[in-house]
Amino acid sequence: MSPNRFRRRADEGSIALFVAICVAGLVIMVGIVLEGGGRLRAIENADARAQEAARAVGQQLDQAALLSAAATC
Length: 73
Hints:
- The structure is a single chain.
- This protein has 3 helices and no strands.
- By secondary structure, the chain is mostly helical.
């Protein structure tokens, strides 16, 4: 047996381990990206609903009553 044969056996499976670690890292990164995207979508949705509510309340206000109340203060 030559010394090269022992070296080759010591490296066997190292590429498979490297690929497994890289794939696991990529799966985790994809999960983080998808989770972050969902979170941003939820924040945008909540912001849009808050703006709609503020707009609806603003349209229901009586401007004349507000201006007369501000003048008396």
